[in-house]
Each structure stands twice: as structure tokens, then as C-alpha cells.
Design a protein that fits this description.
By secondary structure, this protein is mainly alpha-helical. 74% of the residues lie in helices and 3% in strands. The protein has a two-stranded antiparallel ribbon.
């Protein structure tokens, strides 16, 4: 039930675009960063002080700047924010500052890129919906195939619940979900979308494992308990973070060479 509500909400606000989508991304990024700070709290007992509020406000400002077709300005502001996070804490809390900076990069860069992708003039809406469909398919395929088939573990030391069967299901479902967009996206052939979806399934699983490794580093199972049955916002968006980065860099590279 929680998953259905989340998907419908995200898809609806993505379709509406404009300020609705920016508000969705800002809210998601802020919640993810709050969970990241709480996740790393063992490094700095004073993690709930006013500095966190400043970083949250600055992060929201950066994403909003990007919404006004100023991606590079937004990323420059984010780089400045990361520098402050590293330099601000005293020496005894330098590790906490580094993890704070890592969280800003982990959350802020994909959030900026997602806004940039959505507001592309020609295909932004369909690219954003395509990304959402692929990531949902990855989660669904991984869960269903992993539960039904089981078998050898994918990365038992990082995420004991994931299996190779689940990865295969994620690749299959993501490929099919991607293929369903062949009429909406300007691609040379449907086969290209099928391959892209399957490849992004592996990217999403890598993003999931990265967040699992961070959680294991700090000895927690979930990043939060905001979403019933799903954990925290970081837990739900770890695959999306990786997929958005890869897709945005790919499209930006294509535009630079064209």
C-alpha cells in the first residue's frame, strides 16, 4: 500500500511539473539528507544543531536554482556548500564534516540532475517518467523473483537479502518497463530501450548496495522508518540516485558531442 501511494504521488507530481515537481524533489532531498545526518550521528553527537538547518536550507536553494535552467550555477553552489561542510567543523569533528559533505554530494547532485532532466524542453516529462518506471520495475522484479526463486546471495556481506535471481528479475522487469516507452521517447529502435532498461537495473542495484554498505558501516538496518514497510526515503531512492546520475551524464555527454 505504501509503495502504491508513493508511486502514484511521484508520477502525478512529475506529470504536473513546474513548482509541483520541484517541491517533490526538494522535499525528498531534504528528507534524505536528514536521514543521512542521523545515520552518521555516531561521528558527531551535536548533529542536530543549527548547522543542519543551514545545510537543509542551502540544499533546497540549490535545487530551486537548478529549476530556473541554471544547472551549472546550482552545481557550483553545491560545491561551495560541500567545501563549507568540510572546512566548518573543528578538527575533532572533521570526519563528521567529511560524511556531511559526502551526504550533500550523494543527495544534492542527483537531485539537481533530476530537476534538469525533467525540465528538458523536448523530452523531459517522458524521460522523468521513464526513469521512475525503470526504478519501480527494478524494485518489484528484484523482490518478486528473489522471494519466489531465492538461491545464491548477490552480496551477502553487504546486503544478505539480495540474490542473483532477484537481480535477474530486476533486469528483466526493468527492460520490459523501459521498452514500454518506445513510442514516447525519441530513440532509434525499441531494442535500444530494452538494453538501456536492463543496464540501468544493474546501475540501480549497485546504488542499492552502496547505500547498504553505508548503513552496515554505521550498524543500522534502515535509514529511517518514515515509510511503513519500506524504511526511510534513502532506502527507497538509493537506486534512483544512481540511475539519475548515469542517465544525466550520458545525455549531457551526447549533447556536448552533438
Amino acid at each position: 500500500m505504501s509503495g502504491v501511494v508513493l508511486v502514484l504521488l511521484a508520477a502525478g507530481l512529475t506529470w504536473l511539473g513546474s513548482g509541483w515537481f520541484v517541491a517533490l524533489v526538494v522535499a525528498g532531498a531534504v528528507l534524505m539528507f536528514v536521514e543521512w545526518v542521523a545515520l552518521t550521528r555516531s561521528l558527531d553527537g551535536d548533529h542536530r544543531d543549527w548547522r543542519t538547518l543551514i545545510f537543509l536550507f542551502a540544499l533546497a536553494t540549490v535545487i530551486t536554482v537548478v529549476a530556473f535552467d541554471a544547472l551549472w550555477l546550482g552545481l557550483a553552489l553545491l560545491a561551495g556548500l560541500v567545501a563549507v561542510a568540510v572546512a566548518w567543523p573543528p578538527a575533532r569533528r572533521r570526519r563528521a564534516g567529511l560524511w556531511c559533505a559526502a551526504g550533500l554530494v550523494y543527495v544534492g547532485v542527483p537531485a539537481c540532475l533530476l530537476v534538469w532532466l525533467r525540465f528538458r524542453p523536448d523530452d523531459g516529462l517522458w524521460v522523468a517518467l521513464w526513469l521512475l518506471a525503470v526504478v519501480v520495475a527494478v524494485d518489484t522484479g528484484g523482490y518478486v523473483f528473489g522471494r519466489l526463486i531465492g538461491g545464491p546471495r548477490l552480496a551477502p556481506k553487504v546486503s544478505p537479502g539480495k540474490t542473483w535471481a532477484g537481480l535477474a528479475g530486476a533486469v528483466l522487469m526493468a527492460g520490459l518497463a523501459s521498452l514500454s516507452f518506445h513510442l514516447a521517447l525519441p530513440v532509434p529502435s525499441p531494442a535500444g530501450l530494452l538494453v538501456a532498461g536492463a543496464g540501468l537495473a544493474i546501475v540501480a542495484q549497485a546504488g542499492d548496495l552502496l547505500e547498504s554498505a553505508v548503513k552496515r558501516r554505521f550498524g543500522v538496518k534502515d535509514s529511517g522508518n518514515l515509510i511503513p514497510g519500506h524504511g526511510g526515503v534513502l532506502d527507497r531512492c538509493d537506486g534512483l540516485v544512481a540511475v539519475v546520475f548515469v542517465v544525466a551524464m550520458t545525455l549531457a555527454g551526447q549533447e556536448a558531442w552533438s
